[in-house]
Task: structure prediction
Amino acid sequence: MSARTREADVVVIGGGPAGLASAASAADAGAKVVLVDRNRELGGILNQCIHDGFGLHAFGEVLTGPEFAARYIDRAFDAGVEVHPNTTVAELEASRELVCTTLGERYPLRAASVVLAMGCRERTRGMLQIPGTRPAGVYTAGTAQWLTNMRNLRVGKKILILGSGDIGLIMARRLTWEGAEVVGVVELLPYPSGLPRNITQCLEDYGIPLHLSHSATCIHGRERVESVTVARFDGRRQPVPGTEFEIECDTLLLSVGLIPENELSRRVGVRLDATTSGAFVDDRHMTNVPGVFSCGNVLHIHDLADWAAEEGARAGTQAAAYALGGPAKGGAKPIRIEPGDGIRYVVPQTASRGSKELLVSFRVTAPDENRTAEVLADGRVLASEDLRRAHPAEMVQMKVGCADGLDADRLEVRLT
Amino acid sequence: MTTKRLTCILCPNGCEVEVSYSGEPTPESISVDGNTCPRGVDYAIEELTAPKRTLTTSVLVYGGTQPQASVKTACPIPRESLFDAREALRRIAVDAPVAIGDVVASDIAGTGVDVIVTRPVPCSP
Result:
């Protein structure tokens, strides 16, 4: 392990799509890059996402998760990135000094800039506080996916899925193919939270019922899950008395949302956005801690790995520029970017004064059709785009050109 | 006249397309509306006449760093052949190492389509 570099221009933490793309583009920009990942293999969650649908934006072809990962792994190695696998970052200081641990060794690593690309974790039963007993057979959808696709283990025979997130939908189809009976998907909201095409190809293809505006109110079973009580929920997310029914199953999968994994970010003093649970960043993807950047699912949850990777590539380029050129311009107060009518959040949260081009990523608050998304500078429309379909499950990205250089007190993204 | 709404599954946009036809659906009789790219028309016609899906699953690997290698059909196969193809793949095991693109089965379930590896599995050390 002594061959490992102790000093780099850019250290990227996390080897999933965002981290790999970030490391590759930082190295392409001429930086000496170290990529640290806690797993033996690079690729992050992509390795267990053996279904297809990746790569359409990034490569113009349909790939499975592992194939998509392989492209970015090759790209990182070709660019000369040094990879530290099996390694956890134990400490991170605002001075960009890290302490890494690997297989019995602890070593310091120093960088001019750091890219946070740690991804996210799934919400668990404990976070939902579903009443009932504590039997075996309750998994997050991603854990079930890991057991099925990486460990060749069967998670159950009769499966109920709580939440209509994409991982749960993908697992509904996967477990059906594996011979299990998927008895239903239960969703608290009046609309699905996964992509429409996954509703079609994962549920409708196999006649799996989707119970919208329903959720679990009790888990039953002593040793193993035996059944789950489900009830209709009203608009205030409260169960409607008298609507309860029981669904027999031996397994409950939870696909109820993802949370950016920001423990390390918090410790280094990165300011977080209460809505995204990710960092506040400027248009360079830099956090409030100078030289610390954030991208991918640790910044905000993406529905497509393609976009997490693209975001990573942009952050990597900026992290390299920071490392090689020192703190850029500075001085001018950044411009706030705020979510307006119909918008849940916008990333980045600030833009640099004088920017010629800005890319905003945002989500709408509720499903709708034929709306227009606008980016406003002090009330003046800078850019607009018609959305045939607006859905919270689908992140929207808009490019804002500003040839004269951006200058305003406040930017806003809204739906009209 | 029959009218149906389909969600195109060819890309993450998932366009909702409206198809209409009279009598039995045939490539000539189907009209498609609401697609935002030409592939939506092909998808809708195929979906109504002979729906196809890509099977993505895994096969056993001996002597590798992982117990299984993920695989996919090299192109979409008839939807009604999915379970037969999955069943046939359950009886297939390969020796490590395997690389992306390696063919683990040909003409799976009589579809004429190859099944290829999507995740490399090196030999266990």
Notes: The two ends of chain A are 57 Å apart (CA to CA). The CA atoms of residues 225 and 250 of chain A lie 5 Å apart.
